[in-house]
Amino acid sequence: MNFSIERRKQDIQTLKEETLDVLIIGGGITGAGIALQASASGLKTGLVEMQDFAEGTSSRSTKLVHGGIRYLKNFDVEVVADTVQERAVVQGVAPHIPKADPMILPIYDEPGSTFSMFSLKVAMDLYDRLAGVTGTKYANYTLTKEEVLERLPQLNPKGLLGAGVYLDFRNNDARLVIENIKQAAADGGHMVSRMKVIGILHDEKGKVSGAEVEDLLSGERFEINARVVLNSTGPWSDTIRQMDNKLDVLPQMRPTKGVHLVVDREKLQVPQPTYFDTGKKDGRMVFVIPREEKTYFGTTDTDYNGDFAHPIVEQDDVDYLLEVVNTHYPSAKLTIDDIESSWAGLRPLISTNGGSDYNGGNNQAVTDESFDHILSTITKYQEGKTDRNEVESALKNIETSNSESDFNPSAISRGSTLDIDEDGLLTVAGGKITDYRKMALGAMKKVIEILEQDYSLAYELIDSTKYPVSGGDIDPSKVEEETEKLAQIGIEKGLSESEALYLANLYGSNAPRVFSLLDDVEKVAGLNAAEAVSLRYAMDEEMTLTPSDFLIRRTNHMLFKRDTLDSIKESVIREMARYNDWSDELKANYTKELEVAIAESDLKHLKGDKK
Predict the structure, then answer these.
(1) What is the C-alpha R_g of the chain?
(2) Is residue 552 part of a domain?
(3) What distance in Å separates the CA atoms of residue 121 and residue 72, rounded to the nearest whole number?
(4) Are residue 518 and residue 581 in the same domain, yes or no?
(5) How far apart are CA 314 and CA 173, in angstroms?
(6) Same-domain pairing of 445 and 494
(7) pTM for this one?
(8) Which among 83, 185, 216, 605 would be 20 to 30 A from 381, CA to CA?
(9) What region holds the FAD dependent oxidoreductase domain (predicted)?
């Protein structure tokens, strides 16, 4: 059966009747990655998410599979090595999603700079070795001031010293989640969105044995029984643990809010992703990234204590980002009225800084003396004046300081943790999108260990480094070539080249299934053929239950195609109402939900009635 609302009904029935091997709470990227590995390994797997898949945090990132070069300022070599190696794995199992997009990092002569031209080159060389791209077309290089300005004519020349260019990857965060979810469902997992956990169940020995849930579509409450319960709810991790009345839990999460703003590309012209210090001596850096016909920039990094489900962009966020961007691109003269769309999201950071996570690595500040010693040692190594052992010794003996961690959100660890509470509740928290598969692997090893020790159930984990997500059946070394071949199918069925390429990039090896709908789907008034088949596929096979699901998380239409949103939204609502046989009341509710989301993205609460 397709992954549609009808499949949802059957999955709910199964969740009521069977005892699962593992119940995963949370349908963001980590929960989705765990569900894929669990289902593919043969475990009886269930996943419940109280919102849409990816809605809470995993659709609100900077939309990069970022290599973390900044960590090399602190010589967190282990973190960067893990990150770039894992990024290559993700690109291999989901080749239609992360796409290589080299990043330019301008360097200014200003106090508190993350890098000088010298230290940047050292960091980039080390980064390339860790990423395995030394000597390839993706190897780093430097630009003179004049070369930077030729490439980025709007960039502020004052104090500009030059720039480095190194490999990074753009990402479609929500698509990465749904493709993991779809594959888990295809492998027999029971993936249910809009299903809220309201209580943790225990057996007669006081051990966790499942969860009580509420179906937010029907209002029905029921119990799900499971041998292992795994909490992967990101910022909500503490909330779930505190729901467990057998535990006395101290909060471990310190969420921070990140904000991104989108403008028309003609307003802010950048040819490639750009990354620079804010110039405000606050330890932060900002991205400016071209995407489709838009440019977006962010991110802020501020402590957050509000409603986790609805972080919003506030005036201070806008003022901060506009000041940074206008300082670096003075001719842009951006104002709030230039902002076409926006998003705010939370990072599920762990409050204890510097603790090595179960994947390895930490993120502590390096002392100036240690930093200078490492630079000197690496320089000698490059000049042939010392050997590799001396470099490794310097890296192993880094002196660190945690002095910033109490007050600077940007200094909080991006590491992950895997904890098992005394009653057996497993919690995986923290981390970055890039690390999701490896976090899932660590969690699954523990789940399988518990199932074997406590239930005499033996499972063998799949090799998730080689197990594609849905849509990922593409040769990672020939992505562009294979995508063009897929697009040709759509072109032969009457789509324009741009429409066919857009769908091929969006759906990867599932594109032929989408294109096949061109023969079956009747014309939808107000939608072109590509939009109509994309919507039908989303409802048939991507558990798209509301207009917001489709326009925000399945397609990013609201964020990067704001100009055409108003012309298609009513058609999307009307077609979804027909397909799902909505009542007038339900149709009105979903329409209002979408309008609220658009208003928030448009910053109407800050702009007033202006558009």
Answers:
(1) 24
(2) yes
(3) 11
(4) yes
(5) 23
(6) no
(7) 0.91
(8) 83
(9) 21-351
